[in-house]
UniProtKB/TrEMBL annotation:
InterPro entries membership: RNaseH-like_sf
Protein name: Reverse transcriptase zinc-binding domain-containing protein
Organism for this UniProt entry: Erythroxylum novogranatense
Top-level taxonomy: Eukaryota, Viridiplantae, Streptophyta, Embryophyta, Tracheophyta
Amino acid sequence: MFNTNDSLLWHHERNGIYTVKSGYRISRYEHGTRIGANDVLWKRVWELQIPPKLRDFMWRALRGVLPTKCWHLIAIVNLTVNDSLDGKFRQVWNDSGKEVAELFSFVAWHIWNARNDFLWDAKILSPNQIVYNVVSHLLEWRSLNRIRSSQNNYGRQPADVTQMDESHQSFLLNVGWSLFTDAALFHNEGATGFGCVAESAEGGWIEVVSGFQEGVFDPAVAEAIGRRYAINYATHFLEGTDVVYTDNQVLV
């Protein structure tokens, strides 16, 4: 009809040019009252003590950007294909609290990774393997957070050194490296997941190692297995004076 080339126009502006400001305004108008609900949801996701990539993943998943047919595989909630993921996330948060919501995030992340491995690489992970990945990831993350918190509050000292004798203080100040160990017990499965974080004398991160073992029903045994695993690692890969940290008083 007209002797001119076709071009794209943004019909929400008189000049036909798209801008971020214009797109944001239209988005707010079309979503209406959903904006307030999404703001609350985002605040809850932001409060989770999880890795940044998991936080970004959860936000995209809860906004419905990711396919959700695999979420019914999450064992910690009864989620059917037709359920809303953000609705289940709110339910988990309201009924069980932030800590379980964090576990929910780790489980969802690893189910998503397993789904992608199967879809793109034809790699099949068993439920036990997925659980192992979740436990390892969660232990590593919480161990690192515990180290950061300890360093921020007390430096490298594991306790109030002003109440220790001089020889003990000297020992703590001259260690070659430190190991932080922890374990989690899964009563229903009769299994434990454990991990340790190795830290240099300067407070730098060396390595994180973890493991999983079935047939464990006692918390003290779980902690002992984790500590044995850590000491075995240190014997083979670390040199010099060391100190091992544990939060289990039975072992101490």
